[in-house]
Amino acid sequence: MASTTLICDTEPWKDLKGHVKEIEKTHLRDLMADVERCKSMMVEFDGILLDYSRQRVCQDTIEKLFKLAEAAHLKQKIDRMYGGEHINSTENRSVLHIALRAPRDKVICSDGKNVVPDVWTVLDKIKDFSERVRSGSWVGATGKVLKDVVAIGIGGSFLGPLFVHTALQTDPEAAESAKGRQLRFLANVDPIDVARNITGLNPETTLVVVVSKTFTTAETMLNARTLKEWIQAALGPQAVAKHMVAVSTNLPLVKEFGIDPANAFAFWDWVGGRYSVCSAVGVLPLSLQYGFPIVQKFLNGASSIDNHFYSTSFEKNMPVLLGLLSVWNVSFLGYPARAILPYSQALEKFAPHIQQVSMESNGKGVSIDGIPLPFEAGEIDFGEPGTNGQHSFYQLIHQGRVIPCDFIGVVKSQQPIYLKGEAVSNHDELMSNFFAQPDALAYGKTREQLLGEKVPNHLIPHKTFSGNRPSLSLLLPSLSAYNIGQLLAIYEHRIAVEGFIWGINSFDQWGVELGKSLATQVRKQLNLSRTQGKPVVGFNFGTSTLLTRYLEVDSGVQSESTVLPKM
Ligand code: F6P
């Protein structure tokens, strides 16, 4: 599919550019009055309902977006992904996170080899290990049951597992299985994160899971060495074998670190970090906390969406429709951001996870063939659960900038509450907002309405809502492990669709490298200055001044002895 033709040079792209003028003449108030239009913009699959009738589109726009998909060879690109071709061309790798949740009998090949049996070998090993830890047949160095887990990892080795953990925590079935256990995540190299995560834990009853695809990430490796020290200081060096395990693609480095390779859980280079939550990266810590059967349900939910994405026509294909709508909003209507607004506190870590999946995948400046893009790819993702977001940044969304919103709602709460005498249950109260906000954005409030309400003249401009602000709504039946898997896969594939249309490589991340290498230079300077009193050299004026100021003050630690948090 290598080509020097950019998507913006194709006729369907130009046609859509011209079509913007037509859409600009419309208002969502009028578009929403067309019931046939709205009916055609409802899509249902496996219990999930998508309503995209509040997007600034008419049926003609959708047809044109399908033509764009054809010009971008979207179907062929999806097939190439599922076929295990090396679509991550700059790293010469397949992109097969779909294999991580495939049933045992499925055949998915990378480099001519069916990878599904390898996936299941690791899943079986996780099932066995997590059951042994949970049942107490695997114990710590002093014979105590390991009831707490600290998962060390960052980026994709952290955000996905944290999102799923946070979502499962209040699911009754998952909560029951997790009774008496704790799962914590240590990500930031900030020593404060270490202090927070070890406070209240006893090394004797703690298992540390070091999660790193490469096993070279500076933050993770320093945190891993720190917790190794914490364990050794309390229990002696032999305790590491019982209290530390690893998840990585780099088993030689796991061994070099001092973790028994028998206690390492593998994954493969065809799993991108941000797409790795369904590998041992997420499955191991989550199985330790909730038990493997619950995690299996999460994998099944994701797998259901994988089949839907692969085999459903574009008209009814949720990730395809969502991806095309995002491209429409970003590249044609000129809205660079997207707000992810789950009306569920259990999904509070969903937006941070999708931030990485989306922004690391699609934040690119060149096409997959290295040609600078004359348009901007990627979108700025942010979000908070409703209703908290409503009392924070929704002012800007209603009357300031136009930010297309994803409203995510759940029919049945994980934790229903009803107070006798109240008009509605607590979940109905929450969901009243979920249903109201999209219409407030779409319809707005006119000057005429305000005059009818006798609003004083001087306040009319301040109280007017322009409306015509696009959103879409996703309604999930509940927030079980299965539904959480579905939601994850919908977004993963949606983001791939966007990248396929823009013609970029959504599976590499070269943009994170430069900052890392400059930090190496600073680290060297800090060491020389702290240990040998060497002056700051080789940096620009600003950085030298800041570094000098930083080094003037005693750091509170001596290089001759180990210091651990005192909390
Ligand atoms: O920040 C860049 C990155 O490479 C991410 O893509 C990745 O998820 C994260 O670092 C962690 O990498 P690793 O799992 O190799 O420690």
TrEMBL record:
<dbReference type="InterPro" id="IPR046348">
    <property type="entry name" value="SIS_dom_sf"/>
</dbReference>
<dbReference type="GO" id="GO:0006096">
    <property type="term" value="P:glycolytic process"/>
</dbReference>
<keyword id="KW-0413">Isomerase</keyword>
<comment type="subunit">
    <text>Homodimer.</text>
</comment>
<dbReference type="GO" id="GO:0048029">
    <property type="term" value="F:monosaccharide binding"/>
</dbReference>
<dbReference type="InterPro" id="IPR018189">
    <property type="entry name" value="Phosphoglucose_isomerase_CS"/>
</dbReference>
<dbReference type="InterPro" id="IPR035476">
    <property type="entry name" value="SIS_PGI_1"/>
</dbReference>
<dbReference type="GO" id="GO:0006094">
    <property type="term" value="P:gluconeogenesis"/>
</dbReference>
<dbReference type="GO" id="GO:0005829">
    <property type="term" value="C:cytosol"/>
</dbReference>
<dbReference type="InterPro" id="IPR001672">
    <property type="entry name" value="G6P_Isomerase"/>
</dbReference>
<dbReference type="GO" id="GO:0004347">
    <property type="term" value="F:glucose-6-phosphate isomerase activity"/>
</dbReference>
<dbReference type="GO" id="GO:0097367">
    <property type="term" value="F:carbohydrate derivative binding"/>
</dbReference>
<comment type="pathway">
    <text>Carbohydrate degradation; glycolysis; D-glyceraldehyde 3-phosphate and glycerone phosphate from D-glucose: step 2/4.</text>
</comment>
<keyword id="KW-0963">Cytoplasm</keyword>
<dbReference type="GO" id="GO:0051156">
    <property type="term" value="P:glucose 6-phosphate metabolic process"/>
</dbReference>
<comment type="similarity">
    <text>Belongs to the GPI family.</text>
</comment>
<keyword id="KW-0324">Glycolysis</keyword>
<keyword id="KW-0312">Gluconeogenesis</keyword>
<dbReference type="InterPro" id="IPR023096">
    <property type="entry name" value="G6P_Isomerase_C"/>
</dbReference>
<protein>
    <recommendedName>
        <fullName>Glucose-6-phosphate isomerase</fullName>
        <ecNumber>5.3.1.9</ecNumber>
    </recommendedName>
</protein>
<dbReference type="InterPro" id="IPR035482">
    <property type="entry name" value="SIS_PGI_2"/>
</dbReference>
<dbReference type="Pfam" id="PF00342">
    <property type="entry name" value="PGI"/>
</dbReference>
